[in-house]
RNA sequence: GCGCUUGUAGCUCAGCAGGAUAGAGCGACCGCCUCCUAAGCGGUAGGUCAUCGGUUCGAUUCCGAUCAAGCGCACCA
């Protein structure tokens, strides 16, 4: 039910047609505090039209409005404040949530259209860092929110599994590595070789020539190079999967850079056919000056292709394969220019669907104010952060709830939940400096706070099993106390929140919402005895159940689990 | 130099399409468990919303300029 409509109707009638409905609707706003009502109509704009003081206009409107559908309508200064009928609202909202369960908030915005999401995309032979976490959890959450609004997300892990770094890696492995070492601890050993390579090639530039030679061999299909490449790739993927399992993230495709090797010639010849390719300083470029962009480098002086060539091939492949209605790239904001170029080149090719490509940028994670760098060995290993978080969660459980069953499982849900939630609770674009204590905090505005609130509500429902709710219309869910009102208003706004989150590709909208809902319910919980056996018991249980349900669904949209007990 | 992003309490951040006393969390200080999980609830302290202009009845919110920070700016991805 649209409660704003009720207010518009009332105002339209009171104003006797002097203002159009759409103008009234646009003017209505949400008061800052619920003490000022649920909707407010400011009379300022009318002051000029009617040539009267807004305060007087407001009180006149208030006296004319049919109060029948509201608890109260009153003029406060230049505003007309509307207080909704709490009992009716409460009954409607709670019945709807209990009836719809986890599908509460579902809506059809996408008509089941395909949306590809380029996300995570770690580099083979390098560990997954906190930077990849951002892309992974933001992409994962956007996928879930898209699904809830009836899009069909396709999660693509565009692995960095090709490029000159493999030449370096093979050379480093041949120089310093052994098979036994790599097998024992693949990612860390491979990283060690890689970092050492970059240290030593400063003084021994000839190493770079060797590396280039190895990459050339790899491209030409040299058996040893290919064997090593395949081996590095599969070992890396194995260890990536362990982390993705911890995070609970799955992918629909692992087609990475190597996958597009044989698909770039077509891109180049397309560009040639359209006469877009020019030579500049020995390289092949597409001029983008009419877009106010730097030229896109398609081929290097030595004829080798570049990043954008591969992404062009990937974009075209995805359009052909999935016929997407949107194509998202969850990639750090430092690559903004790259995606502008990508879209511009596609546009030049006459591909109108380039407008459906959206770069979803996010802010940088730094450590001690410095940018993370694999080459410099300055990395924060996601796996270690997750393990730390789980260990800390376990410790917390031993202190606070030592009798809990499934301690290990809950510790994992809480620890991992804390890390994911921390990443999603703020706007994507904000930079943040990594602080382990902050990431694994369990108090205040954190994932575990929301999980805890959910667990508390579930605990109440367990204790009231003898009075289990039927959800039938005959049950009365009419609450009208001030304490529950904020909770009810928040519950009602869930679908609007989902809508906003999907429009802005912004999981933080959902995370913030879950914090608000949890906070308002905790307040209610502290002031109201839910299990008191009186005539409103059923209604209060319906509220607790609705809160648990919406909190769980909010967390699910973020990719965070909601344990029943913790 | 050009482009993108950001600038709100000591720290981390909210503030949705401009509107009624600018809100949380953390940190500090002080309260609340014979009562549904205290991973909780409440209180106190703390802000010229970077600066200056403009639009408007009204600007933290929109526009412009300035200052500051981060990130980019052709043969890495």
Based on the model shown, name its key terms:
single chain; 566 residues; alpha/beta; Gyrase A, domain 2; Isoleucyl-tRNA Synthetase, Domain 1; four-stranded parallel sheet; three-stranded antiparallel sheet; 22 helices; 54% helix; 10% strand; RNA-binding; nucleotide-binding; ATP-binding; arginine-tRNA ligase activity; protein biosynthesis
The count of strands amounts to 13
CATH-defined superfamily of the domain at 390-558: Isoleucyl-tRNA Synthetase, Domain 1
CATH topology of the domain at 390-558: Isoleucyl-tRNA Synthetase, Domain 1
Helical fraction equals 40-55%
Shape: globular
DSSP helix count? 22
User: What top-tier CATH class of the domain at 390-558 fits best?
Assistant: Mainly Alpha
Detailed description of the structure:
The protein is α/β, with parallel strands linked by helices and 566 residues long. Among the domains are: 82 residues, Arginyl tRNA synthetase N-terminal domain (Gyrase A, domain 2), CATH 3.30.1360.70; 84 residues, no CATH class; 169 residues, Orthogonal Bundle (Isoleucyl-tRNA Synthetase, Domain 1). It is 54% helix and 10% strand. The protein is built from 22 helices and 13 strands. The strands form four sheets. It has a four-stranded parallel beta sheet, sandwiched between helices. Strands 1-3-2 form a three-stranded antiparallel beta sheet. A three-stranded antiparallel beta sheet has the order 6-7-8. Strand 6 and strand 7 form a beta hairpin. The longest helix is centred in the middle third of the chain and has 25 residues. The radius of gyration is 29 Å and the shape is globular. The model has no long low-confidence stretch (mean pLDDT 92). The protein binds one RNA strand of 77 nucleotides through helix 3, strand 8, helix 13, helix 14 and helix 15. Monomer. It catalyses: tRNA(Arg) + L-arginine + ATP = L-arginyl-tRNA(Arg) + AMP + diphosphate. It is found in: Cytoplasm. This is Arginine--tRNA ligase. One of its GO terms (biological process) is arginyl-tRNA aminoacylation.
């Amino acid at each position: 039910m649209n409660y704003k409509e009720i207010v518009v109707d009332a105002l339209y009638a009171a104003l006797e047609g002097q203002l159009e409905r759409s103008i009234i609707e646009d003017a209505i706003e949400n008061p800052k505090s619920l003490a000022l009502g649920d909707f407010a109509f400011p009379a300022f704009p009318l002051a000029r039209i009617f040539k009267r003081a807004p305060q007087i206009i407001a009180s006149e409107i208030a006296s004319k409005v049919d109060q029948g559908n509201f608890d109260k309508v009153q003029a406060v200064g230049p505003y007309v404040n509307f207080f909704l009928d709490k009992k009716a609202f409460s009954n409607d909202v709670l019945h709807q949530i209990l009836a719809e369960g986890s599908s509460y908030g579902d809506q059809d915005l996408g008509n089941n259209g395909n949306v590809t999401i380029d996300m995570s995309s770690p580099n083979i032979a390098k560990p997954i860092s906190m930077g990849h976490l951002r892309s992974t959890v933001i992409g994962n959450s956007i996928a879930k929110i898209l699904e809830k609004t009836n899009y069909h997300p396709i999660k693509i892990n565009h692995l960095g599994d090709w490029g000159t770094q493999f030449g370096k890696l093979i050379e480093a492995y041949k120089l310093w590595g052994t098979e036994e070492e790599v097998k024992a601890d693949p990612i860390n050993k491979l990283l060690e070789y890689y970092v050492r390579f970059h240290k030593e090639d400063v003084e021994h530039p000839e190493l770079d020539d060797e590396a280039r030679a190895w990459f050339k061999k790899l491209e030409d299909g040299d058996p040893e190079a290919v064997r090593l490449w395949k081996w590095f790739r599969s070992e890396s993927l194995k260890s990536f999967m362990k982390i993705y399992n911890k995070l609970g993230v799955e992918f629909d495709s692992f087609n990475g850079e190597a996958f597009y090797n044989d698909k770039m010639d077509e891109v180049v010849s397309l560009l040639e056919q359209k006469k877009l390719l020019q030579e500049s300083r020995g390289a092949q470029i597409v001029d983008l000056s009419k877009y106010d962009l730097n030229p896109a480098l398609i081929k290097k002086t030595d004829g080798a292709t570049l990043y954008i060539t591969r992404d062009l091939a990937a974009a075209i492949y995805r359009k052909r394969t999935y016929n997407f209605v949107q194509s998202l790239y969850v990639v750090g904001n430092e690559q903004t220019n790259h995606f502008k170029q990508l879209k511009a080149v596609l546009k030049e090719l006459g591909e109108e669907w380039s407008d459906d490509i959206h770069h979803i940028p996010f802010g940088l994670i730094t450590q001690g104010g410095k940018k993370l760098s694999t080459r410099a060995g300055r990395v924060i290993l996601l796996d270690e952060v997750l393990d730390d978080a789980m260990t800390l969660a376990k410790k917390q459980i031993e202190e606070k709830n030592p009798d809990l069953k499934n301690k290990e499982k809950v510790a994992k849900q809480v620890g991992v939940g804390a890390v994911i939630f921390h990443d999603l609770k703020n706007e994507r674009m904000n930079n943040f400096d990594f602080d382990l204590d902050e990431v694994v905090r369990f108090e205040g505005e954190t994932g575990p706070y929301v999980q805890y609130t959910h667990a508390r509500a579930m605990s109440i429902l367990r204790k009231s099993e003898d009075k289990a709710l039927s959800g039938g219309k005959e049950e009365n869910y009419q609450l009208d106390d001030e304490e529950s009102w904020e909770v009810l208003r928040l519950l009602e706004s869930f679908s609007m929140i989902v809508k906003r989150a999907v429009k802005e590709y912004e999981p933080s909208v959902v995370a913030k919402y879950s914090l608000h809902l949890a906070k308002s319910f905790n307040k209610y919980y502290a002031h109201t005895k839910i299990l008191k056996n009186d005539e409103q018991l059923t209604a209060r249980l319906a509220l607790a159940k609705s809160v648990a349900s919406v909190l769980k669904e909010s967390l699910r949209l973020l990719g965070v689990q909601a344990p029943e007990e913790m």
